[in-house]
Amino acid sequence: MTPQNILLIPKIERGIVIDHIPAGLGIPVMALIGRWPELEDAVITLGLNYKSTRMGRKDMIKLQAEPLPPRLLQMLALVCAGVTIKRIDRFEVVEKVVVQVPELFDNLARCINPNCITNAEPHVATRFKRLESGSKHFKCAHCERVCSLDELAGHLKA
Amino acid sequence: MKKDLISIDDLGLEQILDYLDLAARVEALPNAEKAGLLPGKILATLFFEPSTRTRLSFESAMCRLGGRVIGFSESANSSTAKGESFSDTIRTVEQYADVIAVRHPKEGTARLAAEIAGIPILNAGDGANQHPTQTLLDLYTLRKFFGKVDGLKIALVGDLKYSRTIHSLCRALLAFDGVAMTLVSPESLRLPGYLTKAAAGTTATFRESESLADALRDSDVVYMTRIQKERFPDLVEYEKVKDCYRLEAKMLEGAPARLKVLHPLPRLNEISPDVDATQHAGYFEQARNGVIMRQALILDLLDKRNDI
Ligand SMILES: [Zn+2]
User: Fold this and answer.
1) What is the mean pLDDT of chain B?
2) Number of A:B CB contacts under 8 A?
3) What domains lie within chain A, and their CATH numbers?
4) Which of A127, B55, B165, B194 qualifies as a cystine partner to A141, CB 3.0-4.6 A?
């Protein structure tokens, strides 16, 4: 982290840092975090448009809370795979994980096909399976429509 | 574990060939023996949209195996009016039957039914997605006429853009060896690019042809489909092309003797009735094969294949 960035983002003693969020996705990710009542009381710092040698510009979120709910982590994999999750204890990074695109999204998104039965019967759990390893495309297990990661990210379930 | 048939994409070549073999064994059985195979078994045909031909084919298949049939066929509007969820209908009907054939205007319904029900589900068509029994009966028909599917020269004619039957058949044919497909369609109803791209890395080939007459000269099979008026935004365009894709007996005069004409039926104008009397008409036999293939599938799903 550049010395300039250290000045701009206060260090936290304990909690979670979501780093390397592509610039512009910081606010959508904040909105996502806002869905979890258990994170309601957490102190959160949102930073936008930091300089990054790797990404050019990036967003970053620091939460003084832990751990992240598992479903939130799964949704992050859908919305912004590639982000780094760091666990902080006594101002030190004690664990660091890069969020990967999984092979299966289990009931996280609605199907983009309006004529898919899962949209008519929303209690049905959706499943989207990766076409092949490395692909950014997923197939609805029900209607077999192929959806891109971006399309699914735009159709997150409640 | 219970078996279902939901999507042709779930089947590998080996399983497809196995179903073709099973159908051949079913066909070879004497009627009297067939009629004793499924006493006391019930097939439920749940048709949430009408498709008389497919429903009757399933029902005939079951009746001729000595089983019984219950079911319904809804008009396009009444199923939603009733208000019961699809899931509830499946959960209820599985109490009444041993196997369910389901057709529904929404995609993904057959897969959902298979997840919910403890009894086997046969997909009889889910919206624009899959109709696997049609594909299997088409492959069975090809093998019956020619003794094999590998290496056949097949012309696909008409609406190649929207025809679920064509898409599904195409995908299945890619798994065989060296099938040569000639695509004959109006400009606006061409085969989707993802299908021609899927041929890369397989031994199948595609070529496009403007002319039906040209395709007739050098094919083993001509697979005709309906060209539907409502697919054309411009009716002038429809009037221009509709007769180019109509097959008449006199066009078949120079065709090779082996040539067979297939069609999923019902036909409208795309095959003239005078073709019926020629040696090339294969579509009614194709319909007959539908019953045989569905019998094979019902027997397999009910774990009765070893009884024949
Ligand atoms: Zn779907």
Assistant:
1) 94
2) 51
3) 3-98 (3.30.70.140), 104-153 (2.30.30.20)
4) A127
Q: Is B297 in contact with B5 (CB distance < 8 Å)?
A: yes
Coil, helix or strand at residue B166 = helix
pTM: 0.91
Query: What percent of chain B shows pLDDT beyond 70?
Result: 97
Strand order in the sheet with B205-209: B205-209, B180-184, B153-157, B221-224, B260-262
ipTM of the complex in this document: 0.90
Each residue's pLDDT tens digit, A82-122? 999 999 999 999 999 999 999 999 999 999 999 999 999 99
Q: Which fold has domain B8-131+290-307?
A: Rossmann fold (3.40.50)
pLDDT tens column, B116-157 = 999 999 999 999 999 999 999 999 999 999 999 999 999 999
| Whether residue A66 has pLDDT greater than 90 | no
Q: CA Rg, chain A, in Å? A: 17
Cβ contact, residue pair A117, B9, below 8 Å: no
What is the predicted pLDDT for the residue at A11? Answer: 87
Alpha-carbon gap, residue B121 to A124, rounded angstroms: 18
Q: Is A117–B107 a contact, with Cβ atoms under 8 angstroms apart?
A: yes
- pLDDT score recorded for residue B72: 93
Which residues lie closer than 8 Å to B305 by C-beta, 6 or more apart? Answer: B22, B296, B299
Contact (CB<8Å) B108/A121? no
CATH number, domain B132-287, options 3.40.50.1100, 1.20.1260.10, 3.40.50.1370, 3.20.20.140: 3.40.50.1370
Characterize the bridge pairing of strands B221-224 and B260-262. Answer: parallel
Cis, bond preceding A67 (omega within 30 deg of 0): yes
Residue A23 φ then ψ, to 5°: -50, 135
- CA dist B189 → B6, B186, B207, B242 (Å): 27, 5, 15, 12
